[in-house]
Amino acid sequence: MAEAKEKTTPVKLLYDVWAAGDKRVSKGTVLDLPVKAAKALIQQGKASRADPLPGDTE
């Protein structure tokens, strides 16, 4: 049986953050992150959603 792929969602960074391996990711970058990590960054105020909400056409 194949392993289920972890669901990801795009977020836009509002601040520079440090990724794995001491790599700095600049603010304004849009990343596809696992949902759990995305929620944590959004809750900390370090990122915002980068995907359109249902019904948004822009």
- In percent, how helical is the residue content? 10-25%
Please indicate the percent range of residues in DSSP E strands (runs of 2 or more). Answer: 25-35%
Give the terminus-to-terminus CA distance: 39 Å
User: What radius of gyration results from the CA coordinates?
Assistant: 13 Å
| Overall SS class | alpha+beta
Order of strands across the widest beta sheet?
4-1-5
Low-confidence stretches: none
Oligomer: single chain
> How many β-strand runs?
5
Q: How many H/I helical runs?
A: 1
List the helices and strands and how they pair.
Blueprint (H helix, E strand, L loop, with lengths): L7 E6 L3 E3 L3 E3 L4 E5 H9 L3 E3 L9
Note down, in words, how this protein is organized.
There is one protein chain. The mean pLDDT is 87. The relative contact order is 0.29. The strands form two sheets. A three-stranded antiparallel sheet has the order 4-1-5. The protein has one helix spanning 35-43; strands at 8-13, 17-19, 23-25, 30-34, 47-49. The protein has 58 residues and is α+β, with helices and mostly antiparallel strands. The chain is globular and about 35 Å long. The chain is 16% helix and 34% strand. The chain has one domain.
Keywords:
three-stranded antiparallel β-sheet, two-stranded antiparallel ribbon, 16% helix, 34% strand
Q: What's the short version?
A:
The chain has 58 residues and is of the alpha+beta class.
